[in-house]
């Protein structure tokens, strides 16, 4: 039996300062520490990138204990990591890094993109790993846009891309460590679609731009309410686009473990955080120059 999920939280997407740049951070935000297993959602850009303006250039830095994920909507980025990967990530592509026991990576607009100029916009998502997998070997998955399964609604006004998880018999290419769904949705014009989400999953919808009606009750609009978090009480999310819109739909089985976080490390205890810091200093997470 289909039942619409009820809404637990309505969230704006406030701008925050991260070093030299401003970006939107709907998660974590006041009153919401995480939406287990999702720890952080950053919406960066669009930034006008050129040889005279390149604010989003992240030098090599470490991670341990979770999965940092980038979904690129506009522009072009270069990814480099201590596993030896060096990839150009283009608009529509996804990079899914499993930090596990430790990885060092850096990313920023490619030299070619800086030279020609253009807008850069993306989502940076932090997905937690359970204690049993926090020290697994690091891994990197690069998913090109053309290989992402696509579902269209009946009148072809809405495209749903299945990056991870499953929807309408289409399975995401990304290999996940826990049960999660990561979907992007693009509406070309007004239209509606229903998305099936397991009742036991924590779930949210984040609007990048446009205007949509969620579950016949809540309007999401850029600059106003841009994210809703759902209760675990139904199995369906209904989305009605009011015009051209872009959004992100996330759901996952909660891990339900204590989280201890310090900067780029997400572990279960303070001792494990100290170990991560020492391991990074000793070069146990590899090197990237």
Secondary-structure topology with pairs:
Blueprint: E1 7-11, E2 15-18, E3 21-27, E4 38-49, E5 58-63, E6 66-74, E7 76-81, E8 86-90, E9 94-98, E10 103-109, H1 111-116, E11 118-128, E12 139-143, E13 150-152, E14 158-164, E15 166-167, E16 170-171, E17 180-187, E18 191-196, E19 202-209, E20 211-214, E21 218-221, E22 227-230, E23 236-241, E24 245-252, E25 260-262, E26 265-267, H2 270-281
Antiparallel strand pairs: 1-22, 2-3, 3-4, 4-11, 5-10, 6-9, 6-11, 7-8, 7-10, 9-12, 13-14, 14-17, 15-16, 17-24, 18-23, 19-22, 19-24, 20-21, 20-23, 25-26
Description of the molecule:
The chain has two helices and 26 strands. The chain starts with 6 loop residues before the first strand and ends in an 8-residue tail after the last helix. It is mostly beta strands. It is 6% helix and 52% strand. A seven-stranded antiparallel sheet has the order 1-22-19-24-17-14-13, with no helix packed on it. It has a seven-stranded antiparallel sheet with strand order 2-3-4-11-6-9-12. A four-stranded antiparallel sheet has the order 5-10-7-8. The longest helix has 12 residues, at 270-281. A hairpin with a 4-residue loop joins strand 7 and strand 8 (86-90).
């Amino acid at each position: 039996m289909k039942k619409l999920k009820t809404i637990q939280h309505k969230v704006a997407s406030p701008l925050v300062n991260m070093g030299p740049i401003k970006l939107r951070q709907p998660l974590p935000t006041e009153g919401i520490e995480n939406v287990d297993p999702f720890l952080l959602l950053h919406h960066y850009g669009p930034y006008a990138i050129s040889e005279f303006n390149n604010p989003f250039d992240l030098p090599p830095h470490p991670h341990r204990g979770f999965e940092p994920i980038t979904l690129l909507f506009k522009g072009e980025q270069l990814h480099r990591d201590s596993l030896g990967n060096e990839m150009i990530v283009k608009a529509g592509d996804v990079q899914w890094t499993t930090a596990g026991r430790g990885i060092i990576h850096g990313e920023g607009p490619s030299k070619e993109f800086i030279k020609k100029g253009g807008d850069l916009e993306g989502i940076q998502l932090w997905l937690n790993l359970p204690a049993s997998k926090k020290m697994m070997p690091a891994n990197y998955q690069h998913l090109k846009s053309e290989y992402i399964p696509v579902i269209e609604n009946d009148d072809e006004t809405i495209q749903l891309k299945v990056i991870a998880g499953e929807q309408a018999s289409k399975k995401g290419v990304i290999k996940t460590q826990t049960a999660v769904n990561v979907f992007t949705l693009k509406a070309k014009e007004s239209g509606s679609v229903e998305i099936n989400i397991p009742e036991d999953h924590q779930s949210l919808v984040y609007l990048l731009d446009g205007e949509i009606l969620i579950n016949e009750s809540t309007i999401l609009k850029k600059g106003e309410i841009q994210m809703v978090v759902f209760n675990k009480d139904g199995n369906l999310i209904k989305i009605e686009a009011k015009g051209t819109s872009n959004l992100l739909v996330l759901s996952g089985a909660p891990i339900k473990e204590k989280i201890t976080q310090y900067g780029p490390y997400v572990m279960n205890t303070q001792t494990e955080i100290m170990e991560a810091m020492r391991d990074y200093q000793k070069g146990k997470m590899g090197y990237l120059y």
